[in-house]
Design brief:
With 111 residues, the chain is mostly helical. It has a domain of 70 residues: Orthogonal Bundle (434 Repressor (Amino-terminal Domain)), CATH 1.10.260. It is 46% helix and 0% strand. The chain has 5 helices and no strands. It is globular, with a radius of gyration of 18 Å. The protein starts with 14 loop residues before the first helix and ends in a 27-residue tail after the last helix.
Amino acid sequence: MTEEKIEVEKSSGNVFKDLEIPNPEEYLAKARLALIINSIISKSELTQREAAKMLGLSKSQLSALSDGLLDDFSIQHLFSLIRKLDCKVEIVVSGKPAHNTAAEISISMPF
């Protein structure tokens, strides 16, 4: 039996960058914000109809958000949705570490 070598490339940590999508940091930030919104909705046990009404979205827009179809959502709009869910949005700007060659957007969820 012959062993086949599989070529592996280490990820940059940003799938959008790895796929050479323009503005990969923005796409990753939007994906993380959407994950936060979907987690809040899930934990609150809101129905899709209740969540859509609370956020001022149509059910199809909410479905797009939960499916990760984010081209129609700006980062600012996603921030506003988080605020409509009674959560605080905090933005911290800091210098980049010397070892990092590219500036990045970092988003965390403390819950």
